[in-house]
Write a structure and sequence with these properties.
Catalytic activity: Hydrolyzes free adenine bases from 7,8-dihydro-8-oxoguanine:adenine mismatched double-stranded DNA, leaving an apurinic site
GO biological process, one term: mismatch repair
CATH superfamily of the largest domain: Hypothetical protein, domain 2
CATH class of the largest domain: Mainly Alpha
Shape: elongated
Largest sheet: 5 strands, mixed
Radius of gyration: 25 Å
Number of domains: 2
Organism: Flavobacterium album
InterPro entries: A/G_AdeGlyc_MutY, DNA_glycosylase, HhH-GPD_domain, HhH_base_excis_C, HhH_motif, MIG/MutY, MutY_C, NUDIX_hydrolase-like_dom_sf
Structural class: alpha+beta
Low-confidence stretches: 284-296, 367-377
CATH architecture of the largest domain: Orthogonal Bundle
Function: Adenine glycosylase active on G-A mispairs. MutY also corrects error-prone DNA synthesis past GO lesions which are due to the oxidatively damaged form of guanine: 7,8-dihydro-8-oxoguanine (8-oxo-dGTP).
């Protein structure tokens, strides 16, 4: 097939030098594929290197506590991938004697492994002739063949998989699948591809009909929810702070955060100060809430804040796939020592959402009074 031969030739000449391409070990291929879901290679590569250094084998990862896995994953986003990664490592290490399933169907039994990931591992590690179909593949095939099927529709996956399978060389599935993904990542990019130098421009339907920017078709829009978070950084009489573990299902499950007040909209500084005073005012009962429920676990001992300071006048906008978080941080000074508070150094060891961790680093690395004096009220 001319398409397959041309694509593979392009790949061999243009492929990036990546560590997971130098092995057929299923553990490392699985690790790279999980990390690269909804993540660019440039962002995922340092994490792959960190993980393989910390966990050379699947048994090493399985033996590690989940918090260590989440801490290493911090900043990569979509944290359910990290939790599934750890669960799968334990599944392979403890239930499968450390050996990954050696077939597409077997790989689908692993937690967090779907059709695409199973096909990638099966073809690259074991040479099984199964096609991979991800966003890159949808885009390449839709443009080259002029396929106008909405890729978010129910029948799209089956259609594109059949097209990819018809092009797949049975004796070199690994190279072809990697070539498809690489071509979509480097050449047939989502916006403004350089079609003038594309090896397929003579036969590409989208290029020759002026529809490159219209294909692939995706009609379904992602619904985005706006949320307003106010994190309370407590500084008690001993210089310690309070953090909570998010145990409710939802974003950032099993990560840590500061006590939180979530509001339905943006409140004024004075309105928030009154809410913060009420939040800490004794007596109270400890809760088990989370931002999914509009509040977070509170410290065990109530107190009246000695001072409340807004640390960032401009809200930090943190965009997730289905949520936009508008975040403010408040410093809460307490004249009592909280029984469950921990030191700054200890807090930095916990896995936090990256938007919180980055603020912590900035807040604690420099003198807070100097750094945020312009924001004080």
């Amino acid at each position: 097939m001319e398409f397959s031969k041309s694509l593979i030739q392009w790949y061999l000449q243009n492929k990036r030098d990546l560590p997971w391409r130098k092995t057929i070990a299923p553990y490392r291929i699985w690790l790279s594929e999980i990390m690269l879901q909804q993540t660019r290679v440039a962002q995922g590569l340092p994490y792959f290197l960190k993980f393989t250094e910390a966990f050379p084998t699947v048994q090493d990862m399985a033996a590690a506590p989940e918090e260590q896995v989440l801490k290493l994953w911090q900043g990569l986003g979509y944290y359910s991938r990290a939790r599934n990664l750890h669960a799968t490592a334990k599944q392979v290490a403890f239930e499968m004697d450390g050996k990954f399933p050696d077939s597409y169907k077997g790989l689908l039994t692993l937690k967090g492994v779907g059709d695409y990931t199973a096909a990638a591992i099966a073809s690259i590690a074991y040479g099984e002739p199964v096609p991979v179909v991800d966003g890159n593949v949808y885009r390449v095939l839709a443009r080259y063949f002029g396929i106008e099927t909405d890729i978010s529709s129910s029948g799209a996956k089956k259609q594109f998989t059949e097209v990819a399978a018809s092009l797949l060389p049975k004796d070199d599935a690994a190279t072809f699948n990697q070539a498809m993904m690489e071509f979509g990542a480097l050449q047939c990019v989502p916006k403004n591809p350089d079609c003038g130098v594309c090896i397929f421009n003579k036969d590409c339907v989208a290029f020759n009909t002026g529809r490159v920017n219209q294909l692939p078709v995706k009609l379904k829009k992602t619904k985005v929810t706006d949320r307003f978070f106010n994190y309370l950084i407590v500084k008690d009489a001993a210089g310690n702070t309070a953090v909570n573990k998010r145990t409710a299902k939802g974003i950032w499950h099993n990560l840590y955060e500061f006590p939180l007040i979530e509001t339905e909209g943006e409140l004024s500084v004075e309105e928030m100060k009154q809410m913060i005073i009420a939040y800490f005012k004794p007596p109270r009962h400890s809760g088990t809430g989370s931002p999914e429920e509009g509040k977070a676990t509170q410290p065990d001992t109530g107190f009246v804040p000695a001072d409340i300071t807004l640390l960032n006048r401009e809200r930090i906008l943190h965009k997730l796939s289905h949520q936009h978080l508008s975040i403010r941080f408040w410093e809460i000074e307490a004249d009592v020592a909280l029984p469950d508070a921990i030191s700054r150094e200890e807090a930095m060891k916990y896995p936090f959402p990256i938007v919180i961790y980055n603020f912590m680093e900035r807040y604690w690395a420099l003198n807070a009074n100097d750094l945020f004096s312009a924001n004080r009220n």
